[in-house]
Structures are given as structure tokens and as C-alpha cells.
User: Fold this.
Amino acid sequence: MQAYGPYIYKTVYAVLQSPHDAEDVTQETLLQIYRSLPNYRMDGLKTWITRIAVNKAIDFKRSRARRPEQFIDDDGLDRKETSFAGEGMLAAMPAPAAESVAIRQEELRQVQAKVKEMPDQYRRVVTAFYIEEKTYEQIAAETGLALKSVESKLYRARSWMKRHWRKEDFE
Assistant:
């Protein structure tokens, strides 16, 4: 526990992104490791521990997604959030905060401005692939290029971006 506890916590936290949940799942992981030690085959202890931790974190995330969220109403009573037929999963999801929407829009605006600076030969395939989310096949059909040409143009466009763009340009 002392040797691998912090490592397991970091691994679980990377999946869950919640300190409280990561602590709980770390405890469950340590118990599972202890229970599973008789089955350990003496090859790659850290890999084995990591696999158990990641699986526990994923299981926790799935079980959390299946359970409806609980919230405390104004009268102080616990109530389950429910969605009605036809509303789907989006009804149970909280609306994004106005700040995060504004940040996302600003990031998108910055990316679009940078894409406009690209040479025309790259801009078309980058826009089609990353912004319009088209497949290589769709891009090839629309532009009249061979499939391999689309692949090579995207590869060259990525190389161009690495040479000409800096991380600071997007902050």
C-alpha cells in the first residue's frame, strides 16, 4: 500500500478526474489487489496493478453513468433526477456553464483564424477532416484527389502546423 498507493491514486485520478472518487476507487483497488494476490503470476507487478486500477476506475465511471444523479431540493429532501421518455440522456446532463461555452467559442475562433493562415492546399483538407469531420474517402470524392493524396496532404499539413504554430498562439 505504501509503495504503490500514490501511483494507484494518480492512475485512477487520470481516469476519473475527481479527487474524492479517486480516493474511493484507490481503496477498492488496493482491496482487489490484496484479494487477487494468490492469482498473481509473477510477471510485471506494476503492469498488473495498473490494469486492476484502470479497470476499477472504468467500472466506477460506468456505474456512475448508469445511476441517476442525486441532488438536494430546496426543501432539503433527496430526490432522484429523472428524465421522461423521449428526452434521452441529454435531459439528465447539466447545461454547460456560460463561461465554458464562451471559452470554447473563443478557442474555436482562434483555431479558425490560424487555419485561414495555412496554405490553400492544406487548408481545404484540414477544414474538411478536422472541422467538418469528413472521412478520407469523403474528402477524396469531393476534391477529386486520390485517397493517398488526401492522406499525404493531411500529413504535410500536420507537419506545416508543427513548424509554424506555437502553443502560445492558442493561449
User: Anything to note?
Assistant: Strands lie at 70-72, 78-80. Residues 71-76, 78-93 have pLDDT under 50 and may be disordered. Residues 45-66 form the longest helix (22 residues). The first strand starts at residue 70 and ends at 72.
